[in-house]
Design goal:
15 helices, Sulfotransferase-like protein 4, five-stranded parallel sheet, binds adenosine-3'-5'-diphosphate, alpha/beta
Amino acid sequence: EGFGKELLKHKNKIFPYFANHLLKIKSLKVKNDDVFVVAYPKSGTTWTEEIVWLVENNLDFEKASTVSHTDRVLFLDEKPLDQSEQALSPRVFKTHLTFEYLPDQVETNAKVIYVMRNPKDMLVSFFHFAKWIKGFSFSGKFDAILDLFLQDKIIYGNWCEHVNQFFANSNVLFITFEDLIEEPFETTEKIASYLGKKLSNEQIQSLVEFTSFKQMRKNSSFCFQETDKNSEHNQLDLFFRKGEIGDWVNYFDEQMSSKLENKLKNELNPNILIKY
Ligand code: A3P
């Protein structure tokens, strides 16, 4: 429905990758210093990954500016497994997958950080992303994206189930995009302490600055190869589009909002608080 042919269906869920890779992921050997950053797409995955990578690599800002982000953080859903197997520790993985697709050993062996974003802003971000990324031949209107979300036909399946699953797991550190925006210092400190690292206030402050929207948007280690549908645009400006809470008001009318909120009322764990 407007998306490209590279999509794959498995047990009624739609994924952007190839089945033989997806189903092999479960067998990956997990080490106990591995960290997995999990999120539904467009929820602040990259932002969280960058904070985690820096914490795990002793705030190596030099390397974070010069080595491509896709070589530093292993995108589990896409990266050939032998490359992940051979990567040096500490390994930082990113994934949009839920536990049933993740390596069996993740739950017992690894640290998992889940980042949630309010679904209205997530969908607006998704809409823009789908318009320019190679592999999604999407050219519809915003309504079309909302409908896919409401019918669980958007990639990675039902959003509520995704969030509920990680929220319910007490080993997982659950943070939100809105926390990162509103309380960057506290949230970064929380991430570091979950990872077992004690950082000074100055170190946390420098981490917050390096991973601010303005700085990340300038960091060419984030130039992605997969883009280029729209080569006259700067890839960094497209990916780091707005980085704000509340852009949804420019896309949702009252009816659209109530459809979405109705779904959340029925399907989302009521203990999960969403900030718009
Ligand atoms: P917008 O499209 O709303 O700007 P993901 O990494 O999961 O794909 O999420 C991408 C979204 O996170 C984009 O949202 C992007 O701008 C935002 N983002 C990435 N890094 C950020 C940062 N350092 N500060 C604020 N927002 C950031």
